[in-house]
């Protein structure tokens, strides 16, 4: 048990270190994307050809999303670093029976989130960054559902 806990702490420490590097790189990317979004938006305003204007608009829109995604990942990385530090130090208090119930309850939440992303996919232009992002998030919710089911089964077996 101690070895597993030491391994977990080491993995969490490495994640915190890596996320520090990720945040530095993403900050530079976010600033570049902001500049790109402005440049393409200005070009779209100046374009007389509707097709050219549309394509410049798509690039500007995608750049805006890229910028905001980078900033969001920076914020999320900070939160993940805090969670990793907390988990490395935290001693579990909850019974495994209660944990199994809670994990099982969240399977439904994951399924609802997946359905919500399906609905969002119908509202955005296919092929855009936003479309691909919603598709990725839907796939992530599917993955979470599978993991939660597996964990619920594993916890149920360990408590019986």
TrEMBL record:
InterPro entries xref list: Ferritin-like_SF
UniProt cross-references to SUPFAM superfamilies, sorted A to Z: Ferritin-like
Species in which this protein is naturally found: Hyperthermus butylicus (strain DSM 5456 / JCM 9403 / PLM1-5)
Stated name of the protein: Uncharacterized protein
